[in-house]
Structures are given as structure tokens and as C-alpha cells.
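Quick bug: Probable cytosol aminopeptidase output formatted oddly.
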Amino acid sequence: MTYKHIKSLDLSKDFILPCRKDNLEAIKEFSPIDKPDFDGSFLTYQLIYGKEGNRIYLLGLGEEKDAPKLEETFRKLCFETQKYWDKAMQVYGVDLSEENIKKAVIGFEMAQYEIGEFKSDKEKESKKTVSFSSSKTIENILEEGQYTGETINKIKALVDAPPNIKTPEFLGKWAKKSSKDANYKCTVLKHKELEKQGFDAVLSVGKGSVNKPVVIITEYKPKDTKKVDITLVGKGITFDSGGLSIKPSTNLHYMKSDMGGAAVVLGVVELVAKLKLNINIVGIVCSAENAVDAESYRPGDVINSYSGKTIEIIDTDAEGRLVLADGLSYAVKKIKPEYLIDLATLTGSVVRTLGYHAAGMFTNNEEMAKTTSDLGYKVHERVWQLPMFEDYESDLHSDIADIRNFSGNPLAGATNAAKFLEAFTEDHKNWMHLDIAGVSFGSSPYAKMKSASGYGIQLITEFIKLKASK
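Here's what came back:
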């Protein structure tokens, strides 16, 4: 879509009239119907006709509590009605804040996501222009909303892509293309270079697959300094069979989504580059396919890692923490960022703890915890802090290696995984781990099967914007 700023509506043409719940005064200005069958409730809309016979879509914004997820009501309206729109649509934006307008654009963009990319018979939608009437100067807001919505759609397409296409090498090529389009640096480390540099845990996880692992390093550094402000590390398991500790067949086809953390890292670096934020960031994606083969690593093996620590393998299905361990070690040894954040669809335990409405947040830095929590409520990508007590460390004791990758304890699995990662951060004071297993991929009113949500793009970008502003 294309977005424009206009000073006033053309009342002879179709337009969208956003209304807050039980505050319908604006309707009287534009319609002969004083009291339509509509109260402005969130996710509702009503079609009425203006004096010129034009369509007026009354759109419910709901109450103040609904503001953080405002994109959803615009997305629903657009998804269900845009086939009836002409090439142009207007939005009455006089009563909308800049944040509301940005959310509206994100919603319109999200409505353009086409999950059926691999269908042989696809519907072709014509490009439309949406114009927002406002007395404010909103061109930059429209641009940010469009870039954000486009990025969300791009990472959703990555997560939803089938694993025979979305290999580790495919992610590397995606990042290379993105870096050229958005003007940042991208380096893809392949098998020989991974061996040379000592990414032993990544290599171990990928041993059983014909699709060899890669580590993708993306860098956006507009500031004239070598210091890196923020490093993001993402788990990029393009398909997770569980390895020799093989998963049950039920829902195994959804394990193409086990690179949701990597998708966020790739997307955020691209978005930050497009927004030209004044901050130095590095993204690290450790990508492998966890497959079953004669070459696969085994339960009982002891493997090395980038950090130099040895790891006893108890469960080959606890592979995400292994590739993240190498990514975190690389970050603290080579990049030395001020802030270090990793994102991963890491455990089923976090889903059993928090369900599908919040990510698990693990950090010993209370400033980061509070900031991220506040931002999560602001953009409706919520997090909930879970404990990192020293008491949990004994669960990872190994008699024959420095640490084991799985406790075997059916309780506190998300925390045990976080404690494992912590062992590879060299006690970094500003490290945070986000377990996004319950929020990255799931049920949606826009698809019949489970699909990607796009969670994390707004949350992490807002965190970066906040740090850039300081």
C-alpha cells in the first residue's frame, strides 16, 4: 500500500471514521444517521452511506486499554473489506494521535500478508493508496508505520516458509539481500569458517542434516565509533526433528517455526537500518537444521563450544540453547556490546507457564526488565519476568563435562534453559533472554492452521529506539 497525508477528507469519496467506544459525536458531522447500530467497541465496524452515496466505515477503537493493540482493529477491517475498496481510501485521522496513526498503518500493512505464497493459484490484489487527514505533520509517522508493518510481514513469511525451502543457507541469502536493500553489512559464516572459528556447538547440532549450518552476522553502525550499543542473538533452527531424541509426530510439521527468534533479529536489524536510528547494533543468527542421520550428535556425547566450555548432551531436542550458547559467547568475546539480548522459541515449558499471551523474560538487570516490560505493554507484545535464582544451577551439573544441556527435571524447564544460557554470557551485566515459544507462532483469525504472529519486531525496535534517543 501507499500512504499519504491530506489536510481534509473528500466527503464525496469513501472513508474510514475511527470511533472510540460510546463517543460517536464525529458521526453526526458526516452522516445523516445520528444513532447507527454501532457503539465503537474494539474490533467492530459498521458500513453506512454518506450524503453522496459514498461508503463510510465506522471503525471501533474500543477503550483506552485497547490502544496498545490498535493495529488489530485496522487490520481486521482492511482484511475483510479491502476487496470492496476503490484504489484509494481515506482515514479521518483528526482525532488520532501519532502513535494511533502509526498503529493504523501497521494494521493496514499486516492485512496485506499473503500466507498462501506457495499456492499455484494466487489472487492478485491491486495496489491501493490510503490517505490520512490530519492537521499534524505525519509523513515520518506514516513511513515508520509502513516500514514496521512490512518488516512484520517479511519475518512472518520467513517463519511460515516450509523447511525444504527455508534452510540455514536460505536464511543467509535472505540476510544478504536485506543488507543490500537496507544498506547495512552482512557476513555469512559457512561450514569451514565455523570449524576454523570454533562454533562447535552449532556444528554439532547441524551434523545430522544435509543442509549445513551457518552463522549470520548483520551489522548496522551509523555512529563514528567501534563501540556496539546492542547485540541481538537469535535461535535459527530451520526445522527441529528433536534429533535422536526425536519428537512425537503430532504437530511436527510446525517445527518449521523454530527459527522465530532468528526472524526477529533479521527483521529488527533491517528495520532499524531503514529508520536510520543513530545506534550501533549487531545481529547474530546461529542457524542449523536438527535432523536425524548416522552423523547426528547423540545423547551422552560431550561436545565443545565457542566459549571453550564442554557440554554433556542429555537430550538432543535441547538444541536451541546449544546454538545460542555459541552466539552469546561470540557476542561477549568478539563484539562486547553494552546490551545483549537473545530471542528464541526455546521451551515448551514457557508455554505451559505463560500460555500464548506473553514471552518469558529472564535477566538479572532490573532496569532492562522494567523497561522491556513497560514497552511490552505499550506495543502489546508483553513479557513476564521469571526467576533466575542460583538454586537452579545444580540442575545443570555434569559429572563428566563443564555443564549439561538438559536437567531432566519436568519442572522449571524455561528457567533451566535460561540458566544454561547464562553460563555462556561471562556474567554480562546487561543480558536478557526472551523465550518467545508461546507468542511467535500460533492460532490466528487470519489462517486456518497455526501461523507466525510477527511478535518481537515492535518490542525490540522500541527498546532500540529508546536507547538511541539517549
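Actually, after a second look the formatting is fine. The radius of gyration is 24 Å. Closing.
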